[in-house]
Amino acid sequence: MPPLLSFSFSIISCMSILLFSLLCILSTGPLGGVEAATPTVKVGNTSKVDDAVYFHLYYGQSFKVIKNSFDGKSYLLIQNNTKMATRTKYCTTRIKSFVVPLANYSIDTDYFPVSFFELLGLLGFLKGLTSGSVASPCVLKLYNEGQIEIVNNSEPANLSQFTAHFIANTDRQQACNFATFLPSGEEMPLQRAEWIKYLGVFANMEVRANHVYDSIKANYMCLTKVVASKNTSFKPTVAWMGYSDDVWSFTKDTFKLQYVADAGGENVDNSISKVTYNVSEPDDLEAFHAILCTVDVVIDETDTSDPASFTASTFLQYINMEDQSCLAFLTNQSIWRHDKRVQNSTNLDWYDGAVSQPQLVLGDLIEAFFPSGNYNTTYFRNIAKGEKVINISPEMCDRDISTAMEPSMLPC
Q: Which residues form the signal peptide (predicted)?
């Protein structure tokens, strides 16, 4: 046999042996033994990622795979009624395995949007929290009733009792049952909301997740079309801004800028040369004041330990402007903050419900830019008109926690 042909034949033979070995492993599991192949199990429903960028889904007959770009991990989700579920376990730097649907789970409450679980109807499986700091009345109610326990997250061993522990902080050390859930890392409002499909895969609830996201997206897109169809050439100039240590900054967050554009506003930072201004420096202060004189609507996101005490007077004190006669947003009484719903003074529903239901955020901003006077905002309050915060408490849970929460659709 010619040398080249012999070499090719050897490669083909080796590849055939490797392929046969792989099939044997998949059929018998990693423990070995010659057994009949595991019967295929049809996945009853599937999801397709349409808008989100940072996760991808793949489906097999008895398993599913989530590729998460935030932590660089692949999550192998194995159906619980297969041999693979008892024989296959991964916990490496690049792949983890879970048996689905999850029997129970816990969450790290640091900026974690539990509203996604509510929309899917999964609160009954939530058994652990790392703190009582959540902006969900129904989760607080479950905690008060003793159905959810507080677990110290400084020791990963404390969390090993749960099938999965969902986190938003990718920098911390992760145990084998940790799974990253980070919708707030996406750059667009709808991309963030589509992470409900991510959770749906863990619970075998793709049909429900698809329904919720499709409804939210349809409502959101309908609202943008209504705004675009308005017969007006006026677009209010909007400054989404925050103050810290003598410095005012205009937002650079893409999703916030997109919200403004979709609600019919014009972002102020599209026309300025820089986004930060140190008001302790005269030149910066003068330039900052000049910009404010062109603004119609302000969205203030200055951090505070006591949102209830943050008023229009607080804002005006921080901008340090004696002659306020040019401020259209003051004349029009249009100074907004996204801290209308808050639990325990620090946990804003802006970081929870607003992530999973962007159509409500868009509805709020449309009212802020084009006031009708007959729409009650959900997440934003107008401090120029003295609007107060709403303190979230367990008593505010007015629904059956065992069922899914329907997204709030706005008239369109």
A: 1-36
